[in-house]
Amino acid sequence: MPSAGSAFSQLHQHLHQTRLLGSISSALYYDQNTVMPTAGASWRGEQLALLAGQLHERQSSAEYAELVAAAESELDTEVSPERRRNLQLLRLELERQRCLDPALVSALAKAQSRGNAVWQDARKRNDFSTFAPALQELIALRRQQATQLAAAEPVTRSPWEILAQPFEPDISKTRLAELFAPLKDELPAMLDQVRSIGSTQPPAIDLPEALQEQLCSELLDSWGYDPARCQRSRSAHPFSCTVGPQDFRITTRVVPGQPLSAFLATAHEWGHSLYEQGLPRSDDHYFPWPLGEATSMGVHESQSLFWECRVARSRAFAERWHSRFCDGLGSDPWNGAFGFWRALNPLKPGLIRVEADELSYCLHIVLRYELELALLEQEMPVDELPQQWNQRMQDLLGIQPQTDSEGCLQDIHWAEGLMGYFPSYALGHLISAQISETFEKENGSIQALLACGDENRLQAWLGQTVWPLGRSVNAEELVEKVSGHPLSAQPFLTYLRAKVAELQ
Question: Rounded mean pLDDT of 392-403?
């Protein structure tokens, strides 16, 4: 522990207060998306803009720069690698923040809050035209941000790559092209294969909302939900949110006509929360330091997708939970556990990303990634987005939305200016598959563990091998450290081929 007067100690205190401000912003965001009345959107935008400005000031001020420099001057050959890594990450983020105009930071925060509110209304109205001006503003502001940030980047990066760095450190369009190419080559053929079968469409079931809520609660309880530290609410778009070191929130939604959606979304968002709860925060190197943060959003998504797909959608898990669903309904509309498992895995291209099967999901991401590039770097007019979305959906998945709400208005990300985020979902699938493959080489079949109800074993392994790494590495370094091999699409494709064969 550094002495009370050391620069490192002073920096620690500064970061702690910055985290407090950030957590206030997170709490307001959670409220905005769960219980805030719609008329509060304008005032909430001002609140978030004020906090964003204060956070930017704390992360870019001359005083803060002096603290970082002083802490760097205390480094010597005997210093721990954790301290050195923390200061490297702080220096990089400081240089980025100092490149940003405070007026732009405030304008972005207001535009994000406004975009969120306008998007929710446009989605309800099924009218992209009412959202288009807000999206155009956000794109223009993000382009400005990328231009300002370019000077701080350690290597030359395109605007999209710059904006993607907070989500996926060190990612490049070249690397994404390498990882996505096998998906674009093989997934459409797999989709054609399951189309020809036509036997995995789930039956039409009316699963009462109260029963869905009950089953979601039972799932969370069985996976370690602690009401003293955790809370679940409803929102228009499911998400996970960490408000403080001991305050973890998730949201879900009940979707008409999708009786298993809330259950699977709960598994997904709880996977995010488990990762957050497992990040290293226990000693002086980790909280409030960067090393205690998530490795990347791709790694974050790998954990949510692990619990949703490898666990909740697995055959062994379906065989255990089938009776709970039937008991709640008083009947078995799936005609047995195998039918229930098929219902959890409807291998049929769908319009909605968050409801997509594992075969089509990554193609949803490719579509969004390519449209982001077109909007940010290729001068595609915002007004063309619905038409371009529909055409690319037809090209990739063989289906077209009939409305804006089930097309380009379905996701919240662009409404909040989160350009650069979407590829993390596909990377999450690839990382999850490679991590799962490694687990099974070391510990045996995941299915066998699930058949015994031993999810705790999975949590323990992830808590020892993946979660503690935090930001000591980037996503690709984490995969290689855990698996011994570079990240590849092949483990994911191998997993899908086996699943398709078993479902037939």
Answer: 93
